[in-house]
Task: inverse folding
């Protein structure tokens, strides 16, 4: 008996390189084709800008766009933190009392299934604009955290729960040492979804707010550029949004992997 | 064959009972009668096996003794430590599965009962390490459960049950999922621990051979609702070793226990 089973074999280097290189090649080929089509057909930039024009716009308008990016990212972050804390707290509350769960859960579902784009204009009337935007991001993002955390809290090993009971664990002890760690993989899964959704919520609210007059986020820039037929800037803002979404997902996936890598199946190599 | 039990055990059995069940029944919410009425007296320091077909309520009986679920009727009496507060009321429980927390180290798993009982971290870690050493896993304190084999996980589970120094050890088919050779080795280790620690052990199993090899007394239970079919004392030279497994006395006892078990499965087709 020894711990050799713990030493995971590394996946073959060649295969992981292929998995990384192939999408890059496809991306480069797509860009090249796009550039060629625009140049050969002499398509005007207000119809379809070439990738090179988009990059130039990104550099030229960086001062405006970077400020907008910061605004959108801050909104996303606030919405995400609110969704994370709110979703987990609500799930804990539901877990403590069935009465609370039965009373409130239907409303959580209603909030989730009502399109946020339809709620946003109302929120903008009743709340200060920045608050309304964050609330939109929260509404879109909190549900996966809530439902995943609830699932995790309810999937605690029955015998482990019995063990805690045998040793007279208090409710806070059971929560801290058993339920929360057991639910952690589910919670992190919920947060990973919530990261992308809070960006979507922020963008949707910004667009709604943009038509109401004020705002300076990336989505507002897109709407504004649309009215002014500044299509290259639209694409540049879109590119930034897309990159932001990728980075958010990557960061959350990395955090999840680092937290779970020593024990959870999802973070272990196939051959472990 | 003369009985040559350790004198301390004899003395203990004369003085007090560790567990006493009188007319205990368990009826589940769906109306199924799972157990009893069951009468069982276990003297302090005894190693007793509960043997019976699956579904006969052996595990239920253990859960009742551990206080994990209430009896529907009858009295469950478990001798408690006098004086100082005993974590887990002086009971250690080993489940059928290792039931370890996958998110933390072996040492933290073993320390859990002490942590829940409010024992300071340094003392808890020292006692966890001692318990791990007693089951032969001193070198694996920092490993995570998934890095261990099935037998090692079971040892960790045993160490966790022992870390509170309980008077009574309840074991619910702990070795059922292990291969025969690993199980034989763990049987010997368990016997050695029992001899050195002098605890009362109630061991649930569905293996005739395991129950005869380990226990001083085999209680054979009927099919559901579980009652006592036979109460067979295993008298042999102590301490037992591998030679007992191959002796004629051993096979005679196995024959007797099997015969007592037969009514619970012969002529029935419900299982």
Result:
């Amino acid at each position: 008996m020894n711990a050799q089973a713990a030493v995971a074999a590394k996946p073959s280097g060649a295969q992981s390189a292929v998995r990384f290189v192939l999408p890059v090649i496809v991306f480069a080929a797509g860009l090249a084709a796009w550039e060629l089509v625009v140049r050969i057909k002499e398509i005007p930039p207000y119809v379809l800008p070439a990738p090179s024009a988009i990059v130039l716009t990104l550099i030229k308008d960086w001062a405006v766009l970077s400020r907008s990016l910061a605004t959108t990212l801050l909104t996303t972050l606030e919405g995400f933190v609110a969704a994370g804390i709110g979703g987990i707290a609500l799930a804990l509350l539901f877990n403590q009392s069935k009465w609370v769960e039965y009373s409130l859960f239907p409303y959580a579902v209603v909030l989730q299934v009502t399109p946020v784009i339809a709620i946003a204009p109302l929120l903008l009337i009743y709340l200060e604009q920045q608050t309304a935007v964050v609330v939109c991001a929260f509404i879109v993002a909190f549900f996966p955290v809530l439902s995943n955390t609830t699932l995790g809290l309810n999937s605690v090993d029955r015998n482990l729960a019995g063990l805690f009971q045998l040793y007279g664990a208090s409710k806070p002890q059971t929560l801290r040492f058993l339920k929360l760690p057991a639910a952690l993989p589910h919670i992190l899964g919920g947060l990973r979804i919530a990261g992308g959704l809070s960006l979507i919520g922020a963008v949707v609210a910004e667009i709604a707010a943009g038509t109401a007059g004020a705002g300076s986020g990336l989505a507002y820039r897109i709407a504004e550029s649309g009215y002014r037929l500044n299509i290259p800037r639209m694409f540049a803002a879109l590119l930034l949004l897309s990159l932001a979404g990728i980075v958010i997902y990557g960061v959350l996936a990395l955090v999840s992997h680092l937290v779970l890598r020593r024990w959870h199946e999802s973070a272990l190599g196939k051959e472990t | 064959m003369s009985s040559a039990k350790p004198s301390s055990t004899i003395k203990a059995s004369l003085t007090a009972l560790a567990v006493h069940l009188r007319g205990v029944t368990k009826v589940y919410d769906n109306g199924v009668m799972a157990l009893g009425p069951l009468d069982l007296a276990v003297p302090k320091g005894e190693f007793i096996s509960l043997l019976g077909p699956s579904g006969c309520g052996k595990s239920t009986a253990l859960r009742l003794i551990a206080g994990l679920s209430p009896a529907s009727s009858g009295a469950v009496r478990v001798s408690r430590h006098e004086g100082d507060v005993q974590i887990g009321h002086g009971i250690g429980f080993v489940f059928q599965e290792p039931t370890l927390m996958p998110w933390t180290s072996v040492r933290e798993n073993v320390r859990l009962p002490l942590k829940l009982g409010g024992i300071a971290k340094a003392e808890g870690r020292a006692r966890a390490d001692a318990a791990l050493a007693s089951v032969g896993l001193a070198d694996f304190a920092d490993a995570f459960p998934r890095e261990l084999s099935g037998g090692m996980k079971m040892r960790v589970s045993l160490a966790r049950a022992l870390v509170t120094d309980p008077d009574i050890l309840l074991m619910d088919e702990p070795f059922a999922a292990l291969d025969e050779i690993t199980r034989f080795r763990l049987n010997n280790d368990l016997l050695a621990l029992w001899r050195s620690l002098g605890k009362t052990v109630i061991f649930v199993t569905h293996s005739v051979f395991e129950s005869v090899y380990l226990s001083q007394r085999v209680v054979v239970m009927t099919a559901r609702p579980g009652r006592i079919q036979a109460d067979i004392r295993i008298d042999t030279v102590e301490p037992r070793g591998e030679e007992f497994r191959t002796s004629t006395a051993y096979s005679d006892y196995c024959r007797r226990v099997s015969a007592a078990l037969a009514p619970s499965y012969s002529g029935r087709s419900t299982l």
In short: Residues 9 and 271 of chain A are 6 Å apart (CA to CA). The interface with chain B takes residues 1, 3, 5-6, 157, 159-160, 162-169, 173, 177-178, 181-182, 184, 262-264, 268, 272 of chain A (CB under 8 Å).
